[in-house]
Amino acid sequence: MNSTPSLNFDFQKNPKAIDDTKRENFLKNPGFGKIFTDHMLQIKYTNGTGWTDGKIIPYGPISLDPAVCLFHYGQEIFEGLKAYKTQDGHITLFRPLTNAKRFYNSALRMAMAPLPEAIFLKAVEEFVKVEKNWVPDSSVGSLYLRPFMISSTPYLGVKPSPDYIFMIIASPAGAYFSKDNEGVSVWVSEFYTRAASGGTGEAKCGGNYAASLIAQQEATKNNCDQIVFLDAAEHQWIEEMGGMNIFFVFDDGSLLTPPLSGTILPGITRDSILTLARDKGIKVREERYSVHQWIEDIKSGKIREVFACGTAAVVTPIGQVKSSRGEFNINGGKPGTLTQEIRKALVDIQYGRSADPYHWVHKVI
Ligand code: PLP
Ligand code: COI
C-alpha cells in the first residue's frame, strides 16, 4: 500500500534570484503568465512509496526521459489559483481547498495518482511563503499559482503511468485581457467543440486546452478575444469559453449560467458568483441556453449584460458576440452595472476589503 508521509519541503535558495529593484519593476506591470518567480516546488510520486521528496528549488528547466507518458499520451492535469496581498499586509489564498478537491478529481479522471488535498494545500502555502515578495499590490493584481502534475514513467504502452511529478510554479499577474474593464469580444465556435458527454470536460487537463486552440485561432482570425463553445451533441447549447465560465444577465435582473453537465469545468469563480448573487437576492438559474435564443434575446433587448469569469479573467464583461449569423453588441459594448457590482463584491472579498461570511479567504501570512 502507498504511504502518504506528512511531507516537509527542503528549501534550496536560488543563488541567481532576481534582485529587489528588478522584481519590483516587474511587479508594476506584469501582464499575464510571462514572468516566473525564483523558485518552483516539486513532489514525487512513486507507486509503492507514495508522495515523497518534497522540495522548493530554483526555477529552471526539468529533465525528463523522452519516453514518459506525458509526451505521448498527454497524461497531465493542472490548477490555477491566486495569492493576494491584503490592505493590512497579509498574503491570502481564495478557496484553495476547492482547487485541491478539483485537482484530486481531475487526477481520478485521468487515471493519475490523486494528491491528498492536505498535501496540495500545504505545498501551496509553503511555496507562497517562499515567494511572498512576488505578490503584487492589490492595485496591480495578484500572484497566479500554477500547480500541475505530469506522468513520469518512461514506457510506451498505453496505460496509466505508475509515477508522477507534482509541481508548482508562479507568475505575477495583472489583467488577463488588456481591455478587461471595457468588454471583450467573443466568437461562437459552431464547428469545433471542447468536450463531449463522458469525456474530460470537467477535468482540468492539458488536453482540453490543446483541443481548444484551433477554435481560439478561429476567434482571433475573426478579430475576437475569446471563444464560446457549444455542446458536442447538438451544437446549440452554450457551454463555456476557452478558459472561463459564462453568465448572462436578463432585463428582469436575473442571472443564468449553463449547468455543470459534466462537460464544463466546475469553476470556483462561477460557484462563488452563484453564492454571492443568491445572497444578494438575485434570481439565478443554472439552465441550458441555446445560441439561437441568446441572439434572439440580444436583438429583443432581453439580454442586458454578459460576462466571463475565472481565476485568471476574474469577471470580464463581454461587449460583442460574433458568429456566422452576424455581429451583435451587448450593452453598447460596455460593461454592465450588475457585472461591475458582482466583480466588485468578489474582488473586495479576495483582497480583504470586505467581510468574508463564507470563509473563502485563507490566510497564509
Ligand atoms: N472554464 C475553463 C475551461 C477554465 O480553464 C477555467 C479556469 O480555470 C474556468 C472555467 C474557471 O474556473 P475557475 O473559476 O475555477 O478559475
Ligand atoms: C485560470 O483561470 O486559472 C485558467 O486556468 C484559465 C487559463 C489561464 C487557462
What does this structure look like?
- There is one protein chain.
- This protein has 365 residues and is of the alpha+beta class.
- The chain folds into two domains: 10-174, D-amino Acid Aminotransferase, Chain A, domain 1 (2-Layer Sandwich); 184-350, Alpha-Beta Barrel (D-amino Acid Aminotransferase, Chain A, domain 2).
- The chain is 26% helix and 28% strand.
- The protein has eight helices and 18 strands.
- It has helices at residues 20-28, 69-73, 96-109, 117-130, 206-221, 268-279, 291-300, 337-350, and strands at 10-11, 39-46, 50-58, 76-78, 81-85, 91-94, 142-151, 164-173, 184-189, 226-230, 238-241, 245-250, 255-257, 284-286, 303-310, 314-323, 326-329, 361-363.
- Strands 1, 2, 3, 4, 5, 6, 7, 8 and 18 form a nine-stranded mixed β-sheet that branches. Strands 9, 10, 11, 12, 13, 14, 15, 16 and 17 form a nine-stranded mixed β-sheet that branches.
- β12 and β13 form a beta hairpin.
- The longest helix has 16 residues, at 206-221.
- The radius of gyration is 21 Å and the shape is globular.
- The relative contact order is 0.14.
- Pyridoxal-5'-phosphate (PLP) binds next to α6.
